């Protein structure tokens, strides 16, 4: 059927004040108007580009009307506001989601139809803003969607990077990074606000002076100034008339040219300064789960935080309220420690500019800030050299010292018999180079610290921040992550959404727990048939993409087994490829084997400096080349690497996946959110007892998930006992064969050392992520999967039970938990 014939069945009706007719022109008329008057192009005929840009501008008009009304309401109601500070946002493409939220899909279809175009081809015109690395940035975007849908007075804050995460190309099996110039055509989704401009200082010196009461005061001056200019991105709630915004700061030169050197004839020298100032918001750092110790990174953090605190204080001052009301009217959520420098920055503003006393200022900070931790990888806990902060932000370093002095004094007072405790919890680490521990700063300066899954929060309490639990017993809490059902089901999986709305009505889109009613339908043969058809439609669409992009034909009836995520040793893409090699060996040994054909799909980027991760990508591509071209196996086994994995590609993959690979070493993946997207769309998970996998298992039921391998406690115990990967090498002949192949030229003819780094890490290197320890359990679990997949009734029932159990993982639920447990906000709809 034509999409436009069934859209009205899919979605909630619009709220009354939203009804069409509130405007006296149609979306299409406005789009044509914009083609002529905003783009300056002939609107008597349209091509894809013109139609796209015209639509964007017409949709934007409608969002702006709502956004200004909502801002007025915030002021009128004197609402408490949430500031969500994140160095990363990954919104994905906007057009489809915005049309959906605003209830404009039908109008858009009609307009495009009149011009012989379709929405599918139009959305290709849009390029996706890659302003994040992975899960952390995508989580921020899911939460912004839920906040708008729940009608919260919330603002996202981040950086308008000129270059997002690099575009990944695969050349001869290797990852090659290309710049992502996502703004080269401009983006009308981003509105520059040249009047929202703040100077941000770096370097300089601190002067002391005495105020009228004889109190010692500080004044930071000199150094370099850079301007922070606002750019706003709009986030409409789902059909509720509510629109929020994400403010992304862009660095601008403080002076156009340094006039003196310009006059002295040093033209290039004077432009140089302009260039280096703009560098601050030039590019996103491409490491996920690992800190980047570069000065420019710290500059980025301070730059966006300082501008954001200014903006918050500017709005607060309009209310003419005393300072102690700041935390009653605002709350600041820190997404990881990346924005933690906000704490000393607000202290500086309150002390040095507003002339508050220390206690008063500190009390405000501790009631205002809340911190979310996303990772426990020891190497990922952010620290900055004291020397660097002293130079770049001299006043902040003084304030951090003072926070620490007072904090440790309290600790000594309350824990007299533990002389070691102060140095363990100190904000400053000792050692040859003193460093500021940003997580300690964030914990001490906040009223709430949360982890992102039950297990992760437990690990924070038991291990990583154990000392702090005793000092601040009420500060720690869990908020298990969630994903937005608008993008991750309604938008990416139209066939299934239709089926769901037909049977459950459409309230699941904003109340995902409704999905549990699917359990009553698992025994309905016709329903199961329709379910399977939806899945097949999605798999065919993915197969077409793979054919077009990779030039490889895959069988849509094969098991689509997918692992897409950043490349990291702890995520263990290696375990996956080792198993594939052993499957390959088995098929070659038994050419007549009866086996369910399998398509293994990989996607994901490696940080450009992470050599091991890049080697693993190369290994996968080399294995793929060999397997896909072997006439003995190619009907049973295909291995596909999809280049440049991003949000758009995820939207294509997620609904087409049968088996979702979530196989991190237990204890390492804080939560994972990809795991949720797949299970929500009816994939079955093969996973370790790690992060949110455990909670997914609890909700979909033991029989509907394939959990395997060591649990977190067993990983710790084995390491303590002394883990020897050689044992597994010696005792498992299949595994040994696979490892020996990697250590030969089997996959790289003529070059037998291509993967020796991998082989060595797994054996002589001690296999830090215990790939070999989990290998056998993983292989056996895959055998079960392959066996059970063939029983179509059984499999489809399990698939339905997955979707049915995933209601809990809506970001609406997660955001509501933040509201109740941390933010104390009122929805304003
Ligand atoms: O487990 C994921 C989690 O689902 C975790 O690895 C990821 O955050 C997701 C959302 O909670 C994450 N990313 C980072 N730390 N944890 C990170 C660290 C430094 C730079 C960029 C990202």
Automatic annotation (TrEMBL):
GO molecular function: glycogen phosphorylase activity; pyridoxal phosphate binding
Known cofactor(s): pyridoxal 5'-phosphate
CDD domains cross-referenced by the UniProt entry: GT35_Glycogen_Phosphorylase
Subcellular location: Cytoplasm
Pfam families: Phosphorylase
Keywords for the protein's UniProt record, in alphabetical order: Allosteric enzyme, Carbohydrate metabolism, Cytoplasm, Glycosyltransferase, Pyridoxal phosphate, Transferase
Catalysed reactions listed for this entry: [(1->4)-alpha-D-glucosyl](n) + phosphate = [(1->4)-alpha-D-glucosyl](n-1) + alpha-D-glucose 1-phosphate
E.C. number: 2.4.1.1
Protein's UniProt keywords contain Aminoacyl-tRNA synthetase: no
Cellular component GO terms, alphabetical: cytoplasm
One of the GO biological process terms: glycogen catabolic process
Stored Gene3D superfamilies: Glycogen Phosphorylase B
InterPro entries, alphabetized: Glycg_phsphrylas, Glyco_trans_35, Pyridoxal_P_attach_site
PTM sites of type N6-(pyridoxal phosphate)lysine: 677
Family the UniProt entry places it in: Belongs to the glycogen phosphorylase family.
Reported function: Allosteric enzyme that catalyzes the rate-limiting step in glycogen catabolism, the phosphorolytic cleavage of glycogen to produce glucose-1-phosphate, and plays a central role in maintaining cellular and organismal glucose homeostasis.
Name of the protein this chain belongs to: Alpha-1,4 glucan phosphorylase
Gene source species: Halodesulfovibrio marinisediminis DSM 17456
């Amino acid at each position: 059927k034509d999409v436009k014939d069934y859209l009205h069945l899919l979605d909630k009706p619009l709220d009354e004040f939203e009804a069409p007719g509130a405007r006296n022109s149609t979306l299409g008329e406005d789009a044509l108007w914009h083609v002529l008057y905003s783009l300056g192009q002939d609107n008597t005929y349209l091509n894809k580009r013109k139609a796209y840009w015209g639509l964007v501008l017409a949709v934007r008009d409608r969002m702006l009307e709502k956004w200004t009304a909502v801002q007025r309401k915030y002021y009128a109601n004197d609402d408490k506001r949430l500031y969500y500070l994140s160095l990363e946002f990954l919104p994905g493409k906007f057009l489809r989601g915005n049309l959906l939220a605003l209830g404009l899909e039908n109008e858009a279809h009609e307009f495009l139809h009149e011009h012989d175009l379709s929405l599918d081809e139009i959305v290709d015109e849009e390029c996706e803003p890659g302003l994040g690395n992975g899960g952390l940035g995508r989580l921020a975007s899911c939460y912004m969607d839920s906040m708008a849908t729940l009608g919260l007075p919330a603002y996202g804050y981040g950086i308008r990077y000129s270059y997002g995460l690099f575009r990944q190309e695969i050349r001869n099996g290797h990852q090659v990074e290309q710049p992502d110039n996502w703004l080269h055509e401009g983006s009308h989704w981003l509105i520059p606000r040249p009047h929202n401009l703040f100077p941000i200082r770096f370097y300089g010196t601190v002067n002391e002076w005495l105020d009228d009461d004889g109190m010692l005061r500080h004044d930071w001056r000199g150094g370099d100034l850079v301007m922070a200019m606002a750019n706003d991105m709009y986030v409409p709630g789902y059909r509720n008339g509510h629109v929020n915004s994400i403010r992304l700061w862009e660095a601008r030169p403080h002076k156009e040219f340094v006039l003196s050197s310009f006059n002295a004839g040093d033209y290039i020298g004077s432009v140089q300064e302009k260039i280096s100032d703009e560098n601050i918001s030039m590019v996103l750092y491409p490491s996920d789960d690992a800190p980047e110790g570069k000065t420019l990174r710290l500059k980025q953090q301070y730059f966006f935080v300082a501008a954001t605190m200014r903006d918050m204080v500017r709005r607060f001052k309009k209310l003419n309220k005393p300072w102690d009301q700041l935390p009653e009217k605002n709350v600041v959520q820190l997404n990881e420690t990346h924005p933690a420098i906000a704490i000393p920055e607000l202290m500086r503003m309150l002390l040095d500019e507003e002339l508050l006393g220390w206690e008063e200022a500190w009390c405000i900070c501790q009631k205002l800030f809340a911190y979310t931790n996303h990772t426990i990888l020891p190497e990922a806990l952010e620290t900055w050299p004291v020397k660097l902060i002293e130079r770049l932000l001299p006043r902040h370093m003084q304030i951090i010292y003072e926070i620490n002095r007072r904090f440790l004094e309290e600790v000594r007072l309350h824990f007299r018999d533990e002389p070691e405790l102060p140095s363990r919890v100190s904000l400053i680490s000792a050692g040859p180079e003193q460093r500021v521990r940003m997580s300690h700063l964030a914990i001490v300066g906040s009223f709430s610290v949360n982890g992102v899954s039950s297990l992760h929060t437990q690990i924070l309490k038991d291990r990583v921040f154990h000392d702090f639990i005793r000092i601040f017993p009420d500060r720690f809490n869990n908020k298990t992550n969630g994903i937005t059902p608008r993008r991750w089901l309604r938008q990416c999986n139209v066939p299934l959404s239709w089926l769901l709305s037909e049977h459950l009505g459409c309230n699941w889109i904003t109340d995902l727990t409704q999905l549990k009613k699917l359990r009553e339908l698992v025994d309905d043969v016709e329903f199961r048939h329709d379910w399977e058809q939806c899945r097949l439609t999605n798999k065919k669409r993915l197969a077409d993409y793979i054919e077009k992009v990779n030039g490889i034909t895959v069988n849509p009836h094969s098991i689509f087994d997918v692992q897409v995520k950043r490349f990291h040793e702890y995520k263990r893409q290696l375990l996956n490829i080792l198993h594939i090699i052993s499957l390959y060996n088995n098929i070659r040994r038994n050419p007549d084997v009866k086996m369910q054909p399998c398509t293994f799909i990989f996607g994901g980027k490696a940080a450009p400096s992470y050599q091991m991760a890049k080697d693993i990508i190369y290994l996968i591509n080399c294995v793929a080349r060999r397997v896909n071209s072997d006439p003995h196996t190619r009907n049973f086994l295909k291995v596909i690497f999809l280049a440049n994995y991003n949000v758009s590609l995820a939207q294509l993959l997620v609904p087409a996946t049968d088996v979702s690979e979530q196989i991190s070493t237990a204890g390492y993946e804080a939560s994972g959110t990809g795991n949720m997207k797949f299970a929500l769309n009816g994939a079955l998970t093969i996973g370790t007892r790690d992060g949110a996998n455990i909670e997914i298992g609890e909700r979909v039921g033991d029989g509907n998930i394939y959990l395997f391998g060591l649990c977190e406690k067993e990983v710790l115990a084995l390491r303590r006992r002394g883990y020897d990967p050689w044992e597994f090498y010696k005792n498992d002949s299949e595994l040994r064969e696979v490892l020996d192949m990697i250590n030969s030229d089997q996959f790289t003819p003529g070059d037998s050392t291509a993967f020796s780094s991998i082989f060595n890490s797994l054996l002589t290197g001690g296999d830090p992520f215990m790939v070999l320890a989990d290998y056998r359990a993983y292989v056996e679990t895959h055998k079960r999967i392959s066996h059970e997949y063939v029983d179509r009734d059984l499999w489809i029932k399990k698939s339905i039970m997955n979707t049915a159990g995933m209601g809990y993982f809506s970001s609406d639920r997660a955001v509501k938990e933040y509201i109740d447990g941390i933010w104390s906000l009122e929805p304003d709809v």
